[in-house]
Amino acid sequence: MINSISDTVVLNNGVEMPRFGLGVYKAEDGNEVTNAVRSAIHAGYRSIDTASFYKNEKGVGEGIRTADVSRDELFITTKVWNDEQGYDETLKAFQQSREKLGVSYLDLYLIHWPIRGKFKDTWRALEKLYKEGYVRAIGVSNFKPHHLHELLADSEFVPAVNQVEFHPRLTQEDTRAFCYDHRIQMEAWSPMMRGRLFDHPAITSLAEKYQKTPAQIILRWDLQHDFVTIPKSVHEERIRQNANVFDFELDKGDMDRIDALNTNERIGPDPDKMGQ
């Protein structure tokens, strides 16, 4: 039973990662993202996920510095963007992200997308950063099994995390199976499909059954599939509401009902077409 916002998963290198965190994609740099980060930390969140592409690392860093918890209680993730990939380029991008965030180290650094011809050199840079202690864990985002197979062919470390689009319309069974077999923790971005399923009869009926919101039903479904999940919001009340998912559990039949909504529908790009 996952019963607390402080619950963690142990990654394949022994590092503990919170199961629940705040995503900040499209949160505006400055007061908006800073206040969202502070609100989340005040509500008990300890994981914050950003990326250089989001253009809000500076505001995230301000939220971290002005929150009422110490840095070592937090788990901070950022990602290297497509035009920053390559060995030397990634090392430079990491330093820029670290300076914007105002931290001496990162808890997790991810390759944002599997850019063909570059992601293996990018991974070598991440391995260097990991070995030198600048990052507690390294991983990837949006990697399909064939990308992971190619990466693992001559890598020194297995990615600790694969962050992918995951929601009831895109359940990623093949990727989940590969990552489970290789002890790569799955993490969900856009877990609520940007609200597109909130009025689906299967979701609304479960919301009524459990006396929860549609968002809470979907986020609980994420957690029971052993995903780390990082719902995005900049509204204090919604941030608190999203985290109110630890006092109930979906039964197997209801998990199956949500699983059955899968249509392999993406709202983001197909990783095989990104960067072409």
From TrEMBL:
Active-site residues, record numbering mapped to chain: Y54 (proton donor)
Binding of substrate, residues: H112
Keyword Ligase set for record: no
Stored InterPro entries: AKR, AKR5G, Aldo/ket_reductase_CS, NAD(P)_OxRdtase_dom_sf, NADP_OxRdtase_dom
Coiled coil segments of this chain: none
Transmembrane feature ranges: none
Site residues (Lowers pKa of active site Tyr), renumbered to this chain: K79
GO MF term set: oxidoreductase activity, acting on the CH-OH group of donors, NAD or NADP as acceptor
Domain of life: Bacteria
CDD domains: AKR_AKR5G1-3 (cd19157)
Domain NADP-dependent oxidoreductase: 29-262
Cited Pfam families: Aldo_ket_red
Keywords linked to the UniProt accession: NADP, Oxidoreductase
Family as reported in the entry's similarity comment: Belongs to the aldo/keto reductase family.
Protein name per its UniProtKB record: Diketogulonate reductase-like aldo/keto reductase
